[in-house]
Design a protein that fits this description.
By secondary structure, the protein is of the alpha/beta class. The chain has twelve helices and 19 strands. The protein folds into two domains: about 180 residues, TIM Barrel (Alpha-Beta Barrel), CATH 3.20.20.10; about 130 residues, Beta Barrel (Lyase, Ornithine Decarboxylase, Chain A, domain 1), CATH 2.40.37. It is about 30% helix and about 20% strand. Strand 4, helix 4 and strand 5 form a beta-alpha-beta unit. Bound molecules: pyridoxal-5'-phosphate. Pyridoxal-5'-phosphate binds next to helix 9. The site of pyridoxal-5'-phosphate has 12 residues, from helix 9.
């Protein structure tokens, strides 16, 4: 193998969606968030797999993501746009039948003046102060918006991955105060919110990271595996350096492998300083020295003696998931996934990944 290979298990994504769907309150619709190209895994493949499994609502961040998704999944599912109706979006929203979540009085005005009969939803700010109508603005525009029959009223939780955080019940009560009794379907929970329990589910949930095997959905099936080809190995004598800035000095005679992926492929430089490993089967091998743009150096000295030089080393596998790798780099699984580069060979499959 000459190219690093990213394997994506579509059946695991579908199984994770089904598991989150079973956790959701009866009658609640479980949507799928496929923004940022399905968290880096390819919305053109992930979208159809989920639509085929019965997902009827999808969320993207931007209208142009929605246009591409519509081509991939056909006319039936609802595609909602989290950034709402931005200037210049009207032709995209109309052409691809997208449902913008209106975030501000300006977006409400823009939507009803350019696409008065077109589907829309409303996003409310329940305390995260990022997107959505503040309660004053909502009071002002609610009569007009409600007269046009919104499909959904939604908000987003800031601290849902910390179940005991007081922000969760605070945002829940703010959201209720702004939306109780309006007779419009509601949505508050992403992956973390689903795990907080049924009070948070309302009529629709919006999981993203849990579909792709990431925390806080601990029960998720792993979705991605990433194998890096070994380009070259060498013995390095004690006291000799490896890589840029001589950042690693061999403490003993060491067998070093150079593998073919680097920070240009989303394997960020912080991995070099964080004590991260790649795996030869189940055996961890430390990353040594700095991560380069296209290359990573690995210490194979402790591999069992009889073992041949492996052709590939795994950086994501059942032995090291997305969150374990992210921890080593001081980041989160979301950032590792969405940083995965475009140079990998991509292998979409339906079945267990092998290590
Ligand atoms: C990204 C996002 C989601 C999905 O969140 P996860 O934590 O990945 O499940 C849901 N809703 C909104 C508004 C988002 O921005």
């Amino acid at each position: 193998m000459s190219q690093a290979t990213l394997s994506i298990d579509l059946s695991a994504i579908v199984a994770n969606w089904a598991a989150l769907d079973r956790l959701s309150a009866p009658g609640c619709v479980t949507s799928a968030v496929v923004k940022a190209d399905a968290y880096g895994l390819g919305a053109a493949r992930v979208g159809p797999a989920l639509a085929q499994a019965g997902v009827s609502w999808f969320f993207v961040a931007l209208a142009h993501e929605g246009v591409a998704l519509r081509r991939a999944i056909g006319p039936k599912p609802v595609i909602a746009v989290l950034s709402g109706h931005m200037a210049g979006d009207a032709p995209l929203l109309a052409e691809a039948d997208l449902t913008p979540m209106l975030n501000s009085p300006e977006q409400v005005t823009r939507h009803f003046s350019s696409l008065p009969k077109h589907s829309f939803g409303v996003q409310l700010d329940s305390g995260m102060h990022r997107l959505g109508l503040a309660s004053d603005d909502w009071r002002a525009v609610a009569p007009t918006a409600l007269a046009h029959s919104p499909r959904l009223i939604m908000s987003h939780l800031a601290c849902a991955d910390q179940p005991d955080h007081p922000m969760n019940p605070h945002q829940l009560s703010q959201f209720r105060a702004m939306s109780d009794g309006l007779g419009v379907p509601r949505a508050l929970a992403a992956t973390g919110g689903i795990l907080l329990g049924r009070d948070y589910h309302f009529d629709l949930t919006r999981p993203g990271i849990g579909l792709y095997g990431g925390a806080p959905f601990q029960a998720a099936r792993p979705v991605v595996a990433l194998s890096l080809p070994v380009i070259q190995t060498r013995w390095v004598e004690p006291g000799c350096s490896v890589g840029y800035a001589n950042a690693w000095i061999a403490p003993r005679r060491s067998r070093i492998a150079t593998v073919g992926a680097g920070y240009a492929d989303g394997l960020i430089r912080a991995l070099g300083a964080g004590g991260a490993h790649v795996f030869c089967g189940a055996q961890p091998c430390p990353i040594v020295g700095r991560v380069s743009m296209d290359l990573i150096t690995v210490d194979l000295t402790d591999l069992p003696h009889a073992k041949q030089i492996p052709e590939v080393l795994d950086i994501l596998s059942p032995h090291q998931g997305v969150d374990a790798l992210a921890d080593k780099a001081g980041t989160i699984g979301y950032e590792i996934l969405t940083s995965l580069g475009t140079r990998y060979g991509r292998n979409y499959h339906e079945g267990q990944t092998c290590s």
